[in-house]
User: Which sequence fits this backbone?
């Protein structure tokens, strides 16, 4: 958002997060504003406040039943003729090794037991269609993990951070020990290079009808 605000100084940008330490508080473009809020409680904006609404990487934040309500709230705050775009990661790696496949299977079952859809990324276009947006477009980009040069290493760093963030889930819900998780991470890194594993990032966007 900071880059966009710098590139488009005549536009105003509002960032929203449930945490209060996500955005810079001192050095930031003058055309930015940051709001701490939970979209599940409703966004603190009037109807039709924005020309463009963008939401990404919320797959672990919502249970399945939340998604329609969240998208409806995004539709509420976007102006008729405005656009909504979503980006989500498909958590199931492509071309996984055996340990990587086992890791995802257990993670998927654990998340689904809590009502979370680990592959919601594959259906975000359907969420926009169900919200009656027009001209919904979808696609995905593939990023290597642990191979493929700088891009693959950057993705590997993100995966490591994600695994650290999920450590408590693995140890309390899935009953791994910390040592087991760390060993699993080492093994999956090796497999990712050997099998040339990659992850798909899905996007979808659509337009609110002018009469909607």
Assistant:
């Amino acid at each position: 958002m900071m880059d966009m605000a710098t590139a488009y100084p005549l536009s105003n940008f509002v960032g929203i997060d449930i945490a209060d330490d996500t955005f810079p508080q001192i050095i930031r473009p003058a055309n930015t504003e940051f709001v701490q809020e939970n979209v599940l409680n409703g966004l603190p904006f009037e109807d039709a406040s924005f020309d463009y609404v963008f939401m990404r990487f919320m797959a672990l934040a919502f249970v399945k039943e939340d998604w329609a309500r969240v998208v409806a709230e995004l539709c509420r705050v976007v102006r008729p003729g405005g656009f909504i775009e979503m980006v989500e990661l498909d958590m199931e790696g492509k071309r996984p090794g055996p340990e990587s496949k086992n890791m995802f299977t257990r993670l998927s079952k654990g998340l689904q037991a809590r009502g979370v859809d680990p592959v919601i990324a594959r259906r975000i276009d359907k969420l926009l269609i169900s919200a009656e947006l027009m001209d919904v477009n979808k696609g995905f980009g593939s990023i290597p993990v642990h191979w493929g040069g700088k891009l693959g290493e950057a993705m590997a760093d993100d995966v490591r951070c994600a695994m650290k963030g999920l450590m408590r889930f693995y140890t309390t819900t899935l009953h791994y020990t910390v040592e087991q998780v760390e060993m699993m991470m080492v093994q999956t890194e090796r497999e990712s290079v050997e099998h040339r594993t990659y992850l798909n990032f899905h996007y979808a966007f659509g337009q609110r009808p002018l009469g909607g």
Notes: The radius of gyration is 19 Å. Residues 37-207 form a domain with the Rossmann fold fold (CATH 3.40.50.150). The first strand starts at residue 13 and ends at 17.
